[in-house]
Design brief:
single chain; YybH family protein; alpha+beta; NTF2-like_dom_sf; signal; six-stranded mixed sheet; globular; Nuclear Transport Factor 2, Chain: A
Length: 141
């Protein structure tokens, strides 16, 4: 009986590790797609990584913004056109799971534009909703 219990626990642990690894890769893929869409100037496609809800929270240098549409509007104002968006790179420092459906991401960002190169850090909280990871809190500085 003990052997069966030990084997069952080992199989469960292996399955949980595999799922975590799969979810981590899914999150990294989402961020990579976001970066690619930004660099193409596709702000609307970039925003698909965010939860399309009034509960979306974005915190930047101007303070908190609530809602998908307001966040998109702020991006449009702050980064007008492809030249304003520049070329984006990310450095993903950490992806950590708070539970099976919530993940924390720490990363850095860097924009290369004709006249400047702003850069900073971001923290994200993502939630798995209907099998898809979505950003529901973004704090970028």
């Amino acid at each position: 009986m003990k052997k069966i219990l030990v084997i069952a626990l080992m199989l469960f642990s292996i399955s949980a590790i595999a799922q975590t690894s799969k979810d981590k890769q899914s999150i990294i893929d989402i961020l990579e797609k976001q970066r690619g869409e930004w660099n193409k100037g596709n702000l609307e496609t970039f925003m698909q990584a965010y939860v399309n809800s009034d509960s979306l929270l974005f915190v930047g240098k101007s303070g908190p913004t609530y809602g998908y549409e307001k966040t998109l509007e702020n991006y449009r104002k702050s980064y007008p056109g492809k030249a304003g968006m520049g070329f984006l790179t990310f450095g993903i420092k950490k992806v950590e799971f708070l539970n099976k459906d919530v993940a924390f991401v720490l990363g850095s960002w860097h924009l290369k534009r004709e006249k400047d190169e702003p850069q900073g850090y971001f923290t994200l909280l993502l939630k798995k909703i209907n099998g898809e990871w979505k950003i529901f809190i973004d704090h970028s500085s």
